[in-house]
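Quick start: read one record
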Amino acid sequence: RRKLPSKLTKLLHDWGALLYYKGETQTAVCFDPHWLSLALRRVVNEQNKRQLKVSNGVVQRRELERVWSDFAAPTRQNLLFVLRMNKLSFPVGDVGEKKELIPCLISRPTDE
């Protein structure tokens, strides 16, 4: 596994040429920001909400895996990591439950 020089990585990230996310235990680099936005849109887009089984913003991780089934398992893990790094998803429940809270999928009360 090759490491990108950190100054170069930061510069390319700042320019938008790549996206770089570094967490405590995981790092993700995406060389195609447009591709990443399309992959994430499958989850955080209101129109795609119908494709997911959502309960008040909570989604089982297997639902995310289903929506991203055309990607390899490591890519799906990186996509979830990027959602979390951007504060678009939060793990909820007990460790074994494998659920994510995706705030933009919380149902809004209808005006009556």
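Helices lie at 6-15, 33-44, 61-67, 73-85.
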